[in-house]
Design brief:
Layout (H helix, E strand, L loop, with lengths): L5 H8 L3 H8 L7 H20 L16 E2 L2 E2 L7
Length: 80
Amino acid sequence: MSKQSMRQIAAELEISPAYLSYMLNGKRPWRKDLYQRYMGVVNTFVNREAEDGNHKEESSELSTDGGTRRGVAQSGRAPA
């Protein structure tokens, strides 16, 4: 089974891929109910993948940290 795409996740949440992208990148706030549904979709997908014999110990490909790691923007530039 391959990784679940952002478009597939957005369709399951019944929102647009653009809106999901904005929330994942910190440009829009998460509604509590929507964030809980998102986590349910992602966790269900990861658990389903593990049950299918793919025992990778990784979480979702999508992050909720606003696209930053250790203070460096995902684009490779330092934050302004």
